[in-house]
Design goal:
single chain; alpha+beta; Pnp Oxidase, Chain A; nine-stranded antiparallel β-sheet; binds flavin mononucleotide
Length: 213
């Protein structure tokens, strides 16, 4: 068992850099691109892994990791099963939040906004670009449903592969999170971290403010 005093000793003093309005890009998408490139250069494992938070209509939240598969000035794209827990929550409540934490760089990004499904054509393009095993996996798994056993899943996977000619299931595809707020966090010493919040004001213009750590 980990005792409390050990947890108390677990603390990093962040000294790797800083982030100021003077060196922030006016567009949060350019800023994201810069930090994402830095994360790739730093050889972080799955730098595109991000925590996606959704909530029920009543506001009960849930989070899980998904992979960022594309981004543009419109938003941030990931792929999943539309009938999964997250899919059902997004159907009833399109507000969502993404969080990326790159420990080696002492950086965190929080992206808030509204989620839409991407076009079926774009989901097709991505689905058919995936390895066959991943296509079969997506076509096999009733994501987030209760299943009877691991054996059941593996049998269904083999059946899907044997049938061949795998089509993208209609309930599998992409979502885009269209942000209205993006916060960039950079760890600093003594917990006096840098936090810059971009908020969409109008016509895709963004204002930047500094937040207290
Ligand atoms: C590193 C990592 C990447 C993942 N990427 C995805 C993904 O891109 N899409 C996805 O549906 N699930 C992904 N998962 C699995 C999800 O975290 C989650 O278990 C699954 O989507 C079911 O979530 P839900 O029941 O909340 O809908 C990933 C998990 C990890 C740890």
């Amino acid at each position: 068992m980990i005792i409390e005093s050990e947890l108390n000793k677990m603390r990093e003093n962040y000294e790797k850099g800083n982030f100021n309005i003077e060196n922030a890009y006016p567009s949060p998408f350019n800023q994201f691109e810069k930090w994402f490139e830095d994360a790739k250069q730093a050889k972080i494992i799955e730098p595109n892994a991000m925590v996606l938070s959704t909530a029920t209509k009543n506001g009960m939240p849930s989070s899980r990791v998904v992979l960022l598969k594309g981004y543009s000035e419109k938003g941030f794209i990931f792929f999943t099963n539309y009938n999964s827990r997250k899919g059902k929550e997004l159907f009833n409540n399109p507000y969502a939040c993404l969080n990326l934490w790159w420990g080696q760089l002492e950086r965190q990004i929080r992206i808030e906004g509204i989620i839409e499904k991407i076009d079926a054509k774009e989901s097709d393009e991505y689905f058919y670009s995936r390895p066959l095993g991943s296509q079969a996996g997506a076509a096999t798994s009733p994501q987030s449903e209760k299943i009877e056993s691991r054996e059941w899943l593996e049998k269904k996977f083999i059946e899907t592969q044997l049938k061949g000619n795998i089509k993208r299931p209609e309930n599998w595809g992409g979502y885009i999170l269209i942000p209205n707020k993006i916060e960039f966090w950079h760890g600093r010493t003594n917990r006096l971290h840098d936090r810059l919040l971009y908020t969409m004001i109008e016509n895709e213009k963004w204002k930047i403010v500094r937040l207290a750590p």
